[in-house]
Amino acid sequence: MLKDFLSWIEHDLGPWGPLVLAVAYIPLTVLAVPASILTLGGGYLFGLPVGFFADSIGATVGAGAAFLLGRTIGRSFVISKLRDYPQFRAVTVAIQRSGFKIVLLLRLVPLLPSNMLNYLLSVTPVPIWQYMLATWLGMMPITIALVYVGTTLKDLSDVTHGWNEFSKTRWAFIVLGLVVSVVLMICVTRVAKVALDKALAENADLDSDIASPQLPIVADPDVNLHQPLIIKIDHPQESHEK
């Protein structure tokens, strides 16, 4: 379906293609569907500058839509899913001190699935403007890398179909670009991982059981809150007999 969608953008939409590609991120992100093929498609169809701009804006807006959905009508559902991600407990504590920094590092480090992270962050006290800016910056390296790969696939497709020819110098630049992209992604991820671990460790001394009013508190499922509370009162015996 996504392949047919990209083909439709390429052949039928003309200059509106980048805008439609960006808008397509919103439903995919809200539904937690991986959108990597759209990012590759942006590079394949529009090249590095235009493809990167469309993919970057689309992914950020999509993440913002999921964030707002989780902070409003989907809040109870997100809170019910927190027990599936115990490692997120430390994150909620750290965000109270450094919201922008933690969100940025979480985008650079694949600690949690990106689409689920949109919803988990929605029940933390991070302001939406910090969330959007940190998300845009944090997703930029992987977006550039995937768009570049998509652009390279387009070039290779042109060569295999006989539509274009590359010199040895051009081939060398393509291979070098791919290698540099991979190396940079690994370096950025490792540096961000160290920074994230350090930031979470700095907040380890906080009592995470004492949550702020803005943080969700998940009750123990073994406790039946609907069970009536029974209080027994012993009356003292009368001291005088008739």
Automatic annotation (TrEMBL):
InterPro entries in alphabetical order: TMEM64 (IPR015414), VTT_dom (IPR032816)
Major location (coarse): membrane
Its membrane topology: Multi-pass membrane protein
Superkingdom of origin: Eukaryota
Pfam families: VTT_dom
Gene Ontology cellular-component terms listed: plasma membrane
Subcellular location: Cell membrane
Domain annotation VTT: ranges: 33-151
Protein keywords: Cell membrane, Membrane, Transmembrane, Transmembrane helix
Residues that span the membrane, as ranges: 20-40, 46-69, 90-108, 128-150, 171-192
Listed PANTHER family: GOLGI APPARATUS MEMBRANE PROTEIN TVP38-RELATED, OS07G0655900 PROTEIN
Protein name: SNARE associated Golgi family
Organism phylogeny: Eukaryota, Viridiplantae, Streptophyta, Embryophyta, Tracheophyta
